[in-house]
Amino acid sequence: MDTRVKDPNPCRVIGVLDDGVASLNATALAHLRTADVVIGGARTLALFRHELKADAVTHDLSGQLKAVPGWVRAAREAHRSSVVLATGDPLCHGIAPYLAQHLCLDALDILPNLSTLQLACARIGLAWQDARIVSVHSQDAGEWARGSHPGHGLYALAQALRAEQRLLVLTSPANSPDRIARLLLTEGLGEDFHLAVAENLLQADERVHPQLSAEQAAQMRFADLNVVLLWRSRVAPQPLRFGLKDSAFEQRQPEKGLITKQEVRAVSLARLQLRADSVVWDIGAGSGSVGLEAARLCPRGHVFAIEKNEADHAIAGRNHAAFGVSNYTLQHGKAPEHLDHWPDPDAVFIGGSGGELAELIALVLRRLRSGGALVMNFVTLENLATATQTLQGLEALGIEWDVLQLQAARSKPILHMHRMAAENPVWLVCASRAHGAALETRDV
Fold it and tell me: pTM score, two decimals?
């Protein structure tokens, strides 16, 4: 039983649809017709203008979302009844959670309606109880490109495409169905999904495209008011997340190299202490093996990788294209360039440096989030010495570190028998910044 004390003058948040009055029940319509203050988008206010009482004050919230709590608060303080008009269900990617955060839940009376996503599913007969809802109703960030940063307006959708069977997408005029279709093609998923597009639902010019291919939709233009439904046309792959063979990655030819070998890669990834949402830096990416495997281990995180060698950068790019991840950004350059534009990391892997190792270690430990991990791989005594000397100088500032030497041996055939062939030894230098420890520029 709800024991909360009911507010005598709550703001009514009413879900509406584009068929106007027909979409409202008697209770919602009565609240709208008697409201002293009505808040909504310009198009919604125009749709219901004949239902408002003559002296009702209206506020257009288009581009003024931050002003809405103040308008509601002022109406309540003046003991005037208020209504906020929202599309569909105000609690499904709508304005109600925002108002609850800036006012309080008890100050709101939410009257939901059907979601436009429900209507679109009904039009084509698509069950939606197990579908993932994604909103790309955000600022225009341009066309999707492989390796786009998490700030891109289509990033959440690109991530969801890798994990979900069905997706219901709230679009915007910029992030339109044709742009979504081009995202599918860019990510190599054009054959994996069917699309349906519902335009201008409940209006005279309603139009539903029940089944489109990505190639078809990419060339079409759609009305600004639309929703997109996506469902898999073939079973999603279930790739290995950890412990891939070296042969799973393209490497430099004719001599294979610049790949962190499977055994060392496994221990390095373990020492990085990754979580599902970790932000990871891969410096000196080589073939991209560590960063790409980390991307699979961090499906809600992101990996930022950099490689200075042009040929190796191209190889890492091809491995990225083949690997089926959308949370990986690869840049061509020499660290520390570009690092200033990356978010602070939870984990950093250094597989190579261009001679500025001490500077790079200091920069990473300055940026590393509290409790984060730095893992470095070295095959030369000189780099090992530089790393350990640098870390020794930071111990008083809360830096903890250790060194692990790995030397694996793999079986090789010899006649009708097998022998063990030793791999080169590798030193793993691992460092972490203790919780609460802070490094300033002057400290290093």
Answer: 0.88
Secondary structure letter of residue 324 according to DSSP: T
Strand order in the sheet with 37-40: 57-60, 37-40, 82-87, 11-16, 108-111
- Taking the C-alpha atoms of residue 236 and residue 188, their distance in angstroms, rounded to an integer, is 13
Q: What is the H or E stretch that residue 409 is in?
A: strand 409-414
d(CA 25, CA 11): 17
Strand ranges (DSSP E) for 150-273? 166-170, 193-199, 207-212, 226-232
Per DSSP, the residues of 367-408 read HSPTT-EEEEEE-SHHHHHHHHHHHHTTGGGTEEEEEEEE--
Tokens 């890669």 correspond to 265
* pLDDT, tens digit, 9 for 90 and up, residues 85-100: 999 999 999 999 999 9
Q: Assign 365 to helix, strand or coil.
A: helix
Confidence band (pLDDT; 50, 70, 90) for 4? low
DSSP assigned state of 86: E
363: CB partners within 8 A, 6+ apart: 336, 339
Q: Give the sign of the dihedral formed by CA 17, CA 19, CA 25, CA 27.
A: positive
Beta-strand relationship, 82-87 and 57-60 = unpaired
Residue 88 token pair: 């569909």
Measure the CA–CA gap between 67 and 69, rounded to whole angstroms. 6
3-class DSSP assignment, residue 82: strand
What integer pLDDT is reported at residue 89 of this predicted model? Answer: 95
Beta-strand relationship, 166-170 and 226-232: antiparallel
Exposed (0-12), middle (13-18) or buried (19+): which is 112, by Cβ within 10 Å? middle
Task: Find the distance separating the first CA and the last CA of the chain, reported in whole Å.
Answer: 60
Contacts 24+ apart (CB under 8 A), 65-72: 65/95, 65/98, 68/39, 68/95, 68/98, 68/99, 69/99, 69/102, 69/103, 71/37, 71/39, 72/11, 72/37, 72/39, 72/99, 72/103, 72/107
Q: Using one digit for the tens of pLDDT, what is the confidence trace for 37-55?
A: 999 999 999 999 999 999 9
Cβ(361)–Cβ(383) below 8 Å? no
Peptide bond into 254 cis (omega under 30): yes
pLDDT for 140 equals: 87
DSSP letters spanning 220-252? ----SSEEEEEEESSPPP----S---GGGS---
List beta partners, residue 193.
Answer: 232
In a 10 Å sphere around its CB, with 0-12 CB exposed, 13-18 middle and 19+ buried, how is residue 91 labelled?
A: middle
Three-class SS state of 345: coil
Other beta carbons within 10 Å of 152: 21
The four Cα atoms 204, 206, 207, 210 give a dihedral, to 10 degrees, of -140
